[in-house]
Amino acid sequence: MRIVEIKESVVSIASEIKNAYIDFSKMTVSIVAIVTDVVKEGKPITGYGFHSNGRYAQSGLLNERFIPRLREAEPDSLLDDERENLDPFKIWNTLMQNEKPGGHGERSVAVGVIDMAIWDAVAKIEEKPLYKLLAERFTDQKALKETFVYGAGGYYYPGKNNEALVQEMRGYLEQGYKVVKMKIGGAPLAEDMKRIEAVLKELEAFIERGESAGRRLAVDANGRFDLDTARAYAREIEPLNLFWYEEAGDPLDYALQAELAGKYKPSFATGENLFSHQDVANLLRYSGLRPEKDYLQMDPALSYGLVEYLRMLEVLKQHGWSPSRCIPHGGHQFALHIAAGLGLGGNESYPGVFQPFGGFADHTPVHDSLIHLTDLPGVGFEAKSDLINLFYENFG
Ligand code: MG
Question: Mean pLDDT, to the nearest integer, of 180-203?
């Protein structure tokens, strides 16, 4: 058994939307296909991979370092000792040969693209959906057949007023999401509070008796605020008891997060811009985040893939955190399978943006913020027609 071909390409996901930090007018994504010599139903098994929105395509790193290392590796050195399959852990070590520790930069994104394709191929070779394979190999629990998802959007874009924002959020609620997320920090505090209040008013129509609308809304500052601004927002939103307050300050400013955590009672979320298990360890040591109420959003498609994500979960365990506090960033099927297979708290979903990478299998509607996984072998990209067609167009 061996990898016979590795194909790489770049696609655009440019759009007019903005968060508090960046616009997406030039946003790109790297995609890969890893073709094996295992033939099923007359076709070679191929694993597909991509990375999440928000980091640009990684063609330089992929073509100069990571793909050549995989091509040059002795095929037998990449095989699983216990099964007739590729070994994602040995492949990860091959990719990371001659890479110094620390300073993770964006090589974690490049490695994550390849790692996703490897796991897709491995689960296809084993003829199992990835979530079942993960539950069997790494937990003593049964895989969940459905997982919590929340509808993320609420971006800023030219000419978008509160009515348009409310309409967007209503659309997600009508699609079956119970929790929605909107951006903050791209407008002054007073204006953002009006935006939040407009969405909360809309949410009133969807909540059950005795429930507060705030528990259905998360806000995301994308790391924009200094401590004073982060505190000012915290004071204003605390009485609303929101689902979470995400990335108030710089993702690596654990002291800022700790200052906030001492004074703000409802939940925080952060972690989508931490790309290694070492960074996660520092977050848990120094940020003051609370294992009983806060959320961690590390995204395996940006942070060296699932091999590294498993190490992050180990770090969580050492610090007394449950995997159920993890709700990864990215809104993609890979993290959805990881959530269902490893017992995470759920997954982000982008009902309206970042297509075709955002979103899950066709014909899997959301009910009560829960979504079913498909049982196709692998990550199930073949069940998402716009995405698989994009892979076919690029790789044949
Ligand atoms: Mg975010």
Answer: 98
* Residue pair 359/374 in contact by the 8 Å Cβ criterion: no
End-to-end CA gap in the chain: 22
Confidence band of 208 (pLDDT split at 50, 70, 90): confident
- The answer, yes or no, to whether residue 352 has pLDDT greater than 90, is no
How far is Cα 379 from Cα 111, in angstroms, rounded to an integer? 17
Report pTM: 0.96
Catalytic residues: 183, 329
The two tokens of residue 366 are: 């959301």
DSSP assigned state of 185: S
CA distances from 99 to 75, 118, 263 (A): 21, 20, 40
| The pLDDT of residue 382 | 97
Cα of 367 to ligand 1 centre, how many Å? Answer: 23
Q: How many other CB atoms sit within 10 Å of the CB of residue 89?
A: 14
- Two tokens, residue 185: 């920090």
Interior/surface letters 324-338, b for 16+ CB within 10 angstroms, e for the rest: ebbbbbbbbbbbbbb
Q: For 46-71, how does the pLDDT look when each residue is reduced to its tens digit (9 = 90+)?
A: 999 999 999 999 999 999 999 999 99
Find the 224 Cα to ligand 1 centroid distance in Å. 11
Residue 100 has pLDDT above 80, yes or no: yes
Q: Sorting pLDDT into bands at 50, 70 and 90, what band is 142?
A: confident
Q: Catalogue all structural domains in the chain, each as residue range(s) with its CATH number.
A: 3-127 (3.30.390.10), 137-395 (3.20.20.120)
CA of 27 to the centre of ligand 1 (A): 16
Query: Hey, what's the torsion of the CAs at 349, 355, 361, 362, to 10 degrees?
Result: 120
Please state, in angstroms and rounded to a whole number, the distance separating the CA atoms of residues 82 and 97: 23
Paired strand residues for 297: none
Measured in angstroms, how far is the CA atom of residue 271 from the centroid of ligand 1? Answer: 9
